[in-house]
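Chapter summary example.
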Amino acid sequence: MKIRNIFLDRDGTFIQDMHYLKDPEKIRFIPGAVRAMQEMTRNQLKLFMVTNQSGIGRQYFTLDQYSRVHEYLEHLLADNSISLTGSAFCPHSPDDGCACRKPGPGMWVDLREKFQLKASESIMIGDKLSDLLFAGRCGFRAAILVLTGYGPATLEKMGLESRPGKWFEAGTIQKTPLLVAQDLFAAWNWIQKEL
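The structure predicted for these 195 residues follows.
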């Protein structure tokens, strides 16, 4: 079955992790990320952003500040001929016990219903263990850990060797195959072979 849907974490995956980003002017793309997303768009893949934003629940920034960052991010993407098919965010703190915070599947359930998506046609790319577990809990075709943002720390936490381009045994993340990629563009290089 073809890959049709790319789910992307935001901070540390395609933009620099600025630690509770609340100022649109501080958005910085990770090198190669724009090119990767342009290629994904050109190949008619649907891009979805799923992001935990506990800074709202922790009262480090407001929902309005998050919205301004997101609107400006979409503007920057559009300037580069990239559009998100959909996006979802969790505003809760880790202690709130919500269903939407990754690794919980709440954001997937909402987007799946809205856009009629299939997990078997979907891949998750992120830099944290919660992103990988999210892919597993949603039954995605694969999860890709990028070694940007928290990626190296995640790899170490999981006790895996740093070998970009290496597939880890299926079942590493709840029966979802896991690939390690140097960055988003390297992840794209693998994805395009599967199209």
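To summarize the output: The radius of gyration is 15 Å.
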